[in-house]
Give the backbone structure.
Amino acid sequence: MEKYVPDIYQKSIYTLDYSKLLSKGIKCILFDIDNTLAPMHYTEVSDKTKELIISLKQKGFKVYLFSNGPKRRVIFFEQALGVKGVYFAFKPFQSKLKKFIKQTGFALEEIALVGDQILTDVLAGNKVGITTILVTPVSNKDHLPTKIIRFLENRKMKKLNKKNLFTKGEYYD
Ligand SMILES: [Mg+2]
């Protein structure tokens, strides 16, 4: 059950305490795109998001995108934010994440994955052993596959809640 529980849970990428992440030894942050950085289907990146990414780079973080979305969508965000990314990441499967870790050479303790879904983002990160950070989705519009995952996720969250492992909306860091 704990593999579905994030290490950190925040309302958004803007409420996350990045200085605290640095002090914990995190050097590399992987961001999910859809409903984490931007609403689904959005083909615009807000200035607020751009400024956040710039500030993270200034703090010394290496920032990457790690998305289950297609190449086209990831390239758009790469160019808008000036970072590199992985597309078709197949979260919650571990293979692309392990490949990324091997290629970049970061230690597991140095990597955090930020996403909006426990059944994909959190599960993938926890299985591999990196720091997992859950944020509340920025919009409630989802692709059909995500709608199905979201349905299963709500059931999972209720189970986790019964076991006092996780409560939706009760943020912690
Ligand atoms: Mg997402």
